[in-house]
Design a protein that fits this description.
With 370 residues, the chain is α/β, with parallel strands linked by helices. The protein folds into 2 domains: 211 residues, FAD/NAD(P)-binding domain (3-Layer(bba) Sandwich), CATH 3.50.50; 128 residues, 3-Layer(bba) Sandwich (FAD/NAD(P)-binding domain), CATH 3.50.50. It is built from 8 helices and 19 strands. The strands form 4 sheets. Strands 1, 2, 3, 4, 5, 6, 7, 18 and 19 form a 9-stranded mixed β-sheet that branches. Helix 7 links the parallel strand 11 and strand 12. Helix 1 packs parallel to helix 2 and helix 1 packs parallel to helix 8. The longest helix is centred in the last third of the chain and has 17 residues. The protein starts with 5 loop residues before the first strand and ends in a 21-residue tail after the last helix. It binds flavin-adenine dinucleotide (FAD). The site of flavin-adenine dinucleotide has 40 residues, from helix 1, strand 2, strand 5 and helix 8.
Length: 370
């Protein structure tokens, strides 16, 4: 990629949030680089892991699996190909260029624009990998997060069959395997016995959400003290939620189905559905040069317009965020599309040559007494 090429918008991450941001900006005649790590890393986007559970509640795509959804997003960007346009006697470039790469570093240049460095091949501890750079006038961060995972045996001492299916047990999104999202997959387990793995007050959200589907719930802390505050522990007790603090040693499975757990004390516990919430890790290591503000769970604090905020609460010029990586939003596909559209349009609008006069209230909603 030629260094002299300056994109209007660099979008990092091509899940629903980033894809929508790229499409919305390109639709306003912006030249967009849409960078995605799914071809060069295990970061495939969260929806990708919905392997056999069909996504039912995303706009338009109802009944689609994760891999099909990722393909549909990719095809959608093809409707905005890179092209030359003439605008006011000037030649410009519009449309989306896709690149497969893992964002490593984002730097602000003296002229205020951004330089993005990304790996173009899988990262390796043993050898230096190829990198390239791209320049952009604005950035939309839509790289999502990775889910934490319980430390449960999937390999060494497991029987051959479990080894064969270890990927199924390790990753969520199978109708009879692990799930990560009670809102997404709770409907598969109406009136069934759910195992919920996690600890601390953190787990309360999942348990509370599970009440829409069943009253048969067991929280498993996997060997840790439950860590819940007295009111949360009492609330779960009142609702008849069982608590199991023993160490889980291994999965018990049959073919593609996860059936239960073998505990360290030898007991075998069986359930109908398995949910986990062990926290998350935001995919924002490439922002290390910026003083970005994080929420308690490590996500990016943003303004109502999805500007990324710094630690003093001020917007970082030229930087927006969309999707799961934004603190305080629902971690669902429709919300990612919505914030992606907002971030993409805000980034695009910031590049307009002239703005509305500030003193006449254009664009302002009428006040009650207007
Ligand atoms: C198993 C499972 C099932 C789900 N089911 C549903 C459902 O039924 N309904 C629903 O509404 N929601 C569901 N969700 C939630 C939904 O998938 C997410 O809310 C949504 O995908 C978030 O979109 P996003 O664009 O913010 O991030 P993601 O979809 O996670 O995409 C992030 C993208 O960023 C890329 N990336 C990460 N780091 C880098 C980097 N350093 N450089 C370049 N690219 C990078 C990744 O490759 C990825 O493509 C489910 C989630 C899971 C895990």
């Amino acid at each position: 990629m030629a260094m002299s090429e300056v994109f209007d918008v660099l979008v990092i991450g091509a899940g629903p949030g980033g894809t929508q941001a790229a499409v919305s900006a390109a639709h306003q005649m912006r030249h967009v680089l849409l960078l995605d790590a799914s071809k060069v890393s295990r970061r495939r986007g969260r929806a990708f892991w919905s392997k056999t559970v069909k996504i039912e509640d995303a706009p338009v795509f109802a009944g689609i699996t994760g891999a099909q959804f990722a393909k549909a997003l990719r095809e959608w960007t093809e409707a905005q190909p890179v092209r030359s346009i003439e605008r006011g006697g000037e030649e410009r470039v519009a449309g989306i260029r896709r690149a497969d790469g893992f964002a490593l570093d984002l730097e602000r240049l003296d002229n205020g624009s951004f330089q993005l460095t990304y790996a173009t091949e899988p990262l390796s501890r043993d050898r230096q990998v190829g990198t390239t750079t791209a320049l952009g006038r604005t950035v939309v961060v839509a790289s999502g997060f990775e889910d934490g995972w319980p430390d449960i045996e999937t390999n060494n001492s497991a029987a051959r069959m479990y080894r064969k299916y270890q990927m199924v047990y390790r990753y969520a999104g199978n109708s009879r395997g692990w799930h990560l999202c009670i809102r997404c997959d709770g409907h598969l387990h109406v009136d069934e016995h759910l195992a919920i793995v996690g600890a601390g007050d953190y787990i309360f959200d999942v348990v509370q959400g599970a009440q829409d589907f069943t009253d048969r719930i067991t929280v498993l802390t996997n060997g840790r003290p439950h860590g819940m505050s007295p009111p949360v522990r009492a609330a779960l007790g009142e609702r008849g939620v069982a608590l199991e603090e023993g160490q889980i040693e291994a999965h018990i499975g049959q073919g593609l189905n996860l059936l239960g757990f073998r505990m360290a004390d030898g007991r075998e516990l069986y359930f109908d559905g398995f949910f986990v919430d062990e926290g998350l890790k935001a995919n924002d290591e490439f922002l290390h040069r910026f003083d970005v503000a994080h929420s308690d769970d490590g996500l990016l604090r943003c303004s109502d317009d999805h500007e990324v905020l710094d630690s003093s609460g001020e917007p970082i010029p030229g930087m927006w965020a969309a999707g799961d990586i934004v603190a305080g939003e629902r971690n669902l596909i429709a919300s990612a599309f919505a914030s992606g559209q907002d971030a993409g349009l805000e980034a695009s609008d910031s590049l307009r040559r002239w703005a509305a006069p500030t003193d006449v209230g254009i664009g302002r909603l009428p006040a009650d007494d207007d």
